[in-house]
Predict the structure.
Amino acid sequence: MEGKRMSSSVAILFFLLVVAFTPMASSDPDPVQDFCVPVLWHGPNHTVHPIFPLCKNSSEVTVDDFVFSGIKSPGDYEATGFSGISVNPTVFPGLNTLGMSFVRADLDEGGVNVPHYHPRATEIAVVLEGTVYSGFVDSTNRVFAKVIEKGEVMVFPKGLVHFQMNVGDSPATIFGSFNSQNPGQEKLPLTLFGSGIEGKLLEKAFGLSKREVENLRRRFGS
């Protein structure tokens, strides 16, 4: 009996040591060098593509590799009144291996950033202009949402569905930052009705008629 208690104590101690000395997992691996600006491939029609994981020789890297000017103005608006410009190493190679990316989001009056989630990253969003109803839903189906204004910041935990809507009387601008260079994005309307999921499943899951499902699938591209 004494031996069993000793074995149990050793097992518990071993477990505690493993927990204590196991590093917290980050979204992306830590870099093993100061930076890794990818080698660029100049393709046809003046296209340029970074070649991962090849890095430029550090002597060839300049300050311009770490400056991006592509979010000075809003992008094209979607039918929902939302415009998003995603910035990741594909368009801004200087971000490569740094474990981050970001987005400029603009919402026209009444514009909506539809419910979506990022499977590989937590997002922090700051309102640069306007008034935005912003929130997320946790795994118990509890909604955390409120109206936030210029200068206020909200965090959306990794993998949780979140959303924004412009509730002001002028356009709104949001800057979002992710703790992954490739956060991924799943927009629920597109994921559910634009991906080719069997129609009968969608009918039963949402209590919709066949015609309603077909209308939604036409709208979202499936």
Summary: The two ends are 65 Å apart (CA to CA). The first strand starts at residue 38 and ends at 42.
